[in-house]
Amino acid sequence: MNIQLALDRLPWNDCFKIVHQTEAYIDWIEIGTGVIKEYGMDIVRQMKREYPDKVLVADMKTCDAARAETIQAFGAGADVTTVMAFASDASIQAVLETAEEYGKKAFVDLLNVREKQRLKELDKLGIRSASLHIGKDMQQEGSGDSDYYKLLQAFPHWEVSAAGGLQADTLYKIKDARPDVIIIGGAITKSEDPRQAAEQIRLEADRL
C-alpha cells in the first residue's frame, strides 16, 4: 500500500517542513484543496521541484470547467488530479481525456456517493481510479464505518485510495478493503512528531 500524505489547512512553510520530516515513510504527496485555494498552483510547482520522485496529487475536487482545471494541475507538475463523482458525466469525461493526453492520472472522489448505479456509470465512463472519502465535516459528525471501505469490492479493476481521519490505530477499518493508497492527513500533520507518526503508520500499513 502506498501512503499519501495529505497537506490540508496548513501554511506554506509547514507543508514543506512536514514533507521533509516524513519523506522516508510516504510515497505520495497531496496538496489539499484548501492549500491550493490559498496558494494556487505555485505550491504545486514548488513541491514538485523539491520532491520530483514522489507522486504529487493536486486535490482539485473538480466539478466544472474540467479541462481547464485539469490542465492547470498537470501543467504545474501534478501527477494526479481529482474530480468529484457527483460532477456531470461531461466534466468527468473531460478530466479523463485530459489526463490521457498528459499521460497522467485522475481519481474520482466518491465523497457522499454510495449509489451502485452511479458507480456503474462511472465505470462505463472509464473511471479506473477512485477515492473512498469520508469528509472532514462527516468525520466530526461521527459518520463513516468499516463497511464503507468495502464499497468498491465489485470493481476489483479499479485502483482505490481510502481517506477519512485514518490513524495508525484505526487502519484495521480498511484491512478487508485492501486499498492501493492510504490517505493520511491530521494523524501526521497534527502530530507533535510527524516523523514518528509517519513511521508508525508505515509499520501498521505494512502489517495489513
Quick structural summary:
This protein has 208 residues and is of the alpha/beta class.
Structure, explained:
The protein has 208 residues and is an alpha/beta fold. It is 41% helix and 20% strand. It has nine helices and eight strands. An eight-stranded parallel barrel has the order 1-2-3-4-5-6-7-8, surrounded by four helices. 38% of the residues are buried.
Helix-strand topology string: EHEHHEHEHEHEHEEHH
Describe the global form.
Answer: globular
Q: Characterize the largest beta sheet: strand count, sense, and whether it forms a barrel.
A: 8 strands, parallel, barrel
Poorly predicted runs: none
What count of helical segments does DSSP give? 9
| Alpha-carbon Rg, integer | 16 Å
Q: Could you give the distance between the termini? A: 9 Å
The residue-averaged pLDDT reads: 93
Proportion of residues in extended strands: 15-25%
Helix content: 40-55%
What's the structural blueprint in terms of helices and strands?
Blueprint: E1 2-7, H1 12-22, E2 28-31, H2 33-39, H3 41-50, E3 55-62, H4 66-75, E4 80-84, H5 89-102, E5 105-109, H6 116-125, E6 129-133, H7 136-140, E7 159-163, E8 181-184, H8 186-189, H9 194-207
Parallel strand pairs: 1-2, 1-8, 2-3, 3-4, 4-5, 5-6, 6-7, 7-8
Helix pairs in contact: 4-5
Features:
208 residues, alpha/beta, 8 strands, 41% helix, 20% strand, globular
